[in-house]
User: Which sequence fits this backbone?
């Protein structure tokens, strides 16, 4: 199940949560296909003013998107294409909803979990 954790400046996120969740979910579906829609889990975290910094200075133009994926995605013959599409689609989703000025400061990180380390509801997730 693709799960996203997104950190954004609170002042940029407030009131846009439903639109952002929809855009992020659509971004995953655009890459993986319609079968993935019901599996996408999104957690949004607003970062209070002054607690997001770049180069030692507080900013409100950065975002962090962490996408947990199965490690097998990196073993696919089309891994380079899939990962590039995920990075672009998720960045586009954030900037479309929250503001184009976040593009340069948006980091997308793909974090792989081997099947034997993925649990849902306390049980090993099905492959």
Assistant:
């Amino acid at each position: 199940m693709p799960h996203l954790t997104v950190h954004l400046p609170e002042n940029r996120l407030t009131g846009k949560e439903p639109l952002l969740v929809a855009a992020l979910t659509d971004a995953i579906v655009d890459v993986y296909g319609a079968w993935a829609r019901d599996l996408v889990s999104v957690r949004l975290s607003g970062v209070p003013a002054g607690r997001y910094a770049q180069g030692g200075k507080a900013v409100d133009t950065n975002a962090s998107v962490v996408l947990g994926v199965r490690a097998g995605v990196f073993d696919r013959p089309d891994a380079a294409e899939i990962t590039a599409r995920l990075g672009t689609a998720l960045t586009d989703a954030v900037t479309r909803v929250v503001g184009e000025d976040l593009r340069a400061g948006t980091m997308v990180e793909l974090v792989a979990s081997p099947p034997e380390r993925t649990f849902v509801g306390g049980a090993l997730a099905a492959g």
In short: The chain has a mean pLDDT of 93. DSSP finds three helices and eight strands in the chain. The CA atoms of residues 29 and 36 lie 6 Å apart.
